[in-house]
Amino acid sequence: MSMLVEESALLTSLQKFFGYESFKGDQEAIIKNVLEGNDTFVIMPTGGGKSMCYQLPALLSEGTAIVISPLIALMKNQVDAIRGFGSDEGIAHFLNSSLTKAETLQVKKDIMKKKTKLLYVAPESLTKEENVAFLKEIKISFFAIDEAHCISEWGHDFRPEYRRLRPIIEQIGKLPIIALTATATEKVQMDIQKNLNMLNAKIFKSSFNRPNLYYEVRPKVDVMKEIIKYVKNNSGKSGIIYCLSRKKVEEVASTLTVNGIKALPYHAGLDATARARHQDMFLMEKSDVIVATIAFGMGIDKPDVRFVIHHDIPKSLEGYYQETGRSGRDGREGKCVAFYSYKDIEKLEKFMKGKPVAEQEIGKQLLVETVAYAETSVCRRRVLLHYFGERYEEENCHSCDNCLHPKTQIEAQDEVQLLLDTVIAVKEKFAAEHVVNVLTGKEDQTVKSYGHNKLEVFGEGAEKDIKFWTAVIRQTLLANLLSKDIDNYGLLKITPEGKEYLNNPTSFMITQDHDYDDAESDDDDEPSGSGGGSAADAELFAMLKDLCKKVAKQKNVPPFVVFQETSLEEMAIQYPITMDELKNISGVGPGKAQKFGKPFIELISKYVEENEIDRPMDLVVKSVVNKSGLKVYIIQNIDRKLSLDDIADAKGITLTELINEIESIVSSGTKIDINYYLNEVIDEERQDEVYDYFRTAETDSIEDAMRELREEEYSEDEIRMMRIKFMSEMAN
């Protein structure tokens, strides 16, 4: 296989197979190294064109390249892409648990016929004996290990089965390996090389700087409202919203949908068909937003994702970098906004409780780095690049919240000297937390046991708090006066520059970190559907009530059919002046807005203008009842004319509880036809009597109706079902 390919021949192949005029970055050098049969290690940020580094050499080599990849969705995506470049479907295949026996047989046939140049395999499939036996029989060009960070416990997506790859590869035969990842700290890089036994591999490391990405961290307050506002301000653009739990993914996707945003959920709890469908709809732009756990996006090649929002802060900076990296892969606009509350960090720490101690320690260290990034007030780009072992020399990147809105700096020359002296005093054998405890004079168990409470520096920095010293440490690390030990993660060491600084101290300006203590994690809060508790405009409320009566008279219906008082009150708080804004008022919905809304928004617009009202631009978030799945089930089965008793039985609820749900559906503006059921349980005459009562009633109160219709002895459920029929026909 060691064939040297001329530069012009490589370019010709690139144009022939992929239609590109030139290589990107190190691609050409990497491809040559692979074609020469050498082990290759590629660290290239998302969007740099990693897949090309093994796809082109595979197409040019004799035999089949085996690509080990962790996600079925990713394999499908890549295989489809390669097949798109050629005429023969057999050129690329995947082998994983999603295939039927017949499909697996077809894959093996194509490989035996030497049609297949790339075979994507899940690590689990590679451990199966029959697959190993099959691979021993065929001509393999090389092994490509994609998402290689999965090998390392220090990586953000550790998978134990990845650590078993080397012995299996050796069992199949001595073949060249190309390992690829989009994120690797020096620690992770070392781990991958040791585990794959490729310490002599040629390393190609591209810069981690993505100049087109904008980074911002916001306090996690009213997060759902903030996200809806952000997405609506970026209308028509593609975006990904990451959440930590499946439950939160479903909740956020449903809330976005009821607020008029085309959003779909994506997580491992959905069946494979639904995941593939949602992914395709996002790629085909039938959906603007995908709300996902980290299961989404590994290798998804959508170049025009314009924003990535983190509803929850991720477990590690590698994870954060990888996920934000899915934005702006075409080199154009990419905005990355994360919502941060320290409560979320505490929640992540709780998740680690049951894990082995070593894993907990690693997890905690990774969280410390995430907190440092979130709370820092220095350039976020510099912090991110420093984490991946890269220096960013610019003073201002002009593309992160901290650079665009810099905080005041203060002189900290004396404090930096004291910090460096303390690191030396504890013999460079402790992490930041311990050093801060010594500086602030905190006598915890560890400080006492090492006798560090007897040191001269103990308590010397006590007039400043822990947050201040943490900020000094972070910024001293960025200035390369201190470093963190790679093998003993987190231990602070003095660098040669740090020693030089102690000999010749100079001015050192620092900015104090952001304080996000007031930020609330919203996991237990439902988005508010009210106007946030502000008092209604009494004059406007009275005018809206009068208008409501007038419209009701014209339409020959009671006023509550037009809008209920709670809706009018909300209008007098929010001042909606467009149809879209009116739809977002609780109890209105698209149906009612269309039917009755025009005179109301005209009245409010005029009132706002005449009284020079400063409207609250904060939108009202329509909340979605957690049982949105139940609502969909009810609507679908009523459309199928299923008996209400059967629907209630199927869901394990009473008829009364089912009626509650149907009332809630109708009051939000959805039309529901339950006539088929009413005709079975209430005779026509009795139906007319209740219907006529609601035509002339002052209110929609069930108690009043039962009092008025007492002689006929209607049950409460019967009256409520008739009110549903009445409201659905008259109001929606």
Structural write-up:
Helix 2 (27-35) packs across helix 3 (52-60) and helix 30 runs parallel beside helix 34. The radius of gyration is 32 Å and the shape is globular. It is α/β, with parallel strands linked by helices. It contains 34 helices and 17 strands. It folds into five domains: 7-205, P-loop containing nucleotide triphosphate hydrolases (Rossmann fold, 3-Layer(aba) Sandwich), CATH 3.40.50.300; 213-403, Rossmann fold (3-Layer(aba) Sandwich); 408-511, Winged helix-like DNA-binding domain superfamily/Winged helix DNA-binding domain (Arc Repressor Mutant, subunit A, Orthogonal Bundle), CATH 1.10.10; 538-610, HRDC domain (DNA polymerase, domain 1, Orthogonal Bundle), CATH 1.10.150; 628-730, Arc Repressor Mutant, subunit A. Helix content is 48%, strand content 11%. Mean pLDDT is 84; it is low at 521-534. The protein has a seven-stranded parallel sheet, sandwiched between helices. Strands 8-13-12-9-11-10 form a six-stranded parallel sheet, sandwiched between helices. The longest helix is centred in the C-terminal third of the chain and has 22 residues, at 589-610. The N and C termini lie far apart (71 Å).
